[in-house]
Amino acid sequence: MIKKFVTTTAALALAAGLSAGTALAEVPESSDPIIIVQNNWTSQLVLSTVVGKVLQGMGYTVEYAPSDSQLQFKAIGDGDMHFQIEAWEGSMKAAFEKAVKEDGMVDAGTHDAVTREEWWVPKYVADKCPGLPDWKALDKCAEIFAVAETAPKGRFVGPPADWGKNYAERVKALGMNFVAINVGQAATLWAELDAAVAKKEPVVLFNWTPNYIEAKYEGMFIDFPEPEGDKCANDPSWGINPDMVNDCGAPRSGWLKKAAWSGLAEKFPAAWGVLQKINFNNAQIAAASLLVDVDGMSTEEAADKWIADNSELIESWKK
Ligand code: TMO
Questions:
Q1: CATH number of the CATH domain containing 74
Q2: Which of 53, 148, 218, 234 has the most CB atoms around it within 10 Å of its CB?
Q3: Is there a contact between 37 and 67 (Cβ–Cβ < 8 Å)?
Q4: Residues 66-122: pLDDT tens digits?
Q5: 163: CA distance to ligand 1 center in Å?
């Protein structure tokens, strides 16, 4: 029975001028859901929804699963979730590489986008703190960033805890006069930034690129010592603090990768083909975030708009 099906399909494929390989299975190859991981920042939410809609358009059943940006990789390796379209080097490298090594997660390719996740200040802060963007200059001005909770130390408005990097450890390793105060969600970062900009008050917060911020505010990332491979994260003797790891910043030109369950290629071959072709650049990612964070669209609306604005690109994913 199975043999007959394969033979017939292959014959049809050959008759249609296709190679037998491409036509072996009909799309969707399985009616089981493809489970797409979602995280808690805008471009990821919009672009994962874009990909979900594209796969639905091909006939797949799609489900979304919210996940922690560190724990997600093991879950993908285990097949509990099927892929992630935005894995960021600055905050996720260690968890990503561990899941590839130990959990069989597949590195599904690197986007063209060049990323950075780092402490960031609006441009006017440079007038109040000479020597920026050097981290030592920032540290000399720590007191202008103080709030009641941190005084006389400065406050670093840090990311939600699940975004991986332990900034309190970096502060300690570099002996900085700062206290890292993590927010609960991205929206709080932007609320802090908007409030500070409105009053031209000093603020230093976690930010990243590509993001909508670059279209809205001028500013700069703080330059910390550059990491050298994994040494800063793993080898205490490396770097300016001989006794501690984390005495460095995030990479200034980081990668952005896709991650997948190892069974995806076999169970959903056409979807795997799409995932492999997806390749975002900085402008495409920043645009996704801008539609929500500046234009005020919902994730759904932004995904539809992004799809409409990039229809040729999306067709190229399916070929
Ligand atoms: C993971 N992120 C892009 C929010 O830094």
A1: 3.40.190.10
A2: 53
A3: yes
A4: 999 999 999 999 999 999 999 999 999 999 999 999 999 999 999 999 999 999 999
A5: 7
Nearest ligand 1 atom to alpha carbon 88: 1
CATH of the domain at 186: 3.40.190.100
Q: Is 190 in the pocket of ligand 1 (CB under 6 A)?
A: no
208 lines ligand 1 (CB under 6 A): yes
**In this model, does residue 21 exceed pLDDT 90?**
no
Q: Whose CA is nearest to atom 4 of ligand 1?
A: 41
Atom number in ligand 1 closest to CA 206? 5
83 lines ligand 1 (CB under 6 A): no
* C-alpha–C-alpha distance, residues 174 and 250, integer Å: 14
Q: Which domain holds residue 129?
A: 116-234
What distance in angstroms lies between residue 18's CA and the mean position of ligand 1's atoms?
Answer: 42
| Number of structural domains in the chain | 2
Does 212 contact ligand 1 (Cβ within 6 A)?
no
- DSSP 8-state secondary structure symbol assigned to residue 174: T
For Cα atoms 93, 133, 126, give the angle at the middle one, nearest 5 degrees: 135
Stated pTM of the model: 0.91
Residues 26-63 have pLDDT tens digits of: 999 999 999 999 999 999 999 999 999 999 999 999 99
Q: In whole angstroms, give the CA distance from residue 300 to residue 150.
A: 39
Check residue 206 and give its pLDDT. Answer: 98
Q: Answer for the pair 270, 27: CB distance below 8 angstroms, yes or no.
A: yes
Residue 242 lies in a domain: no
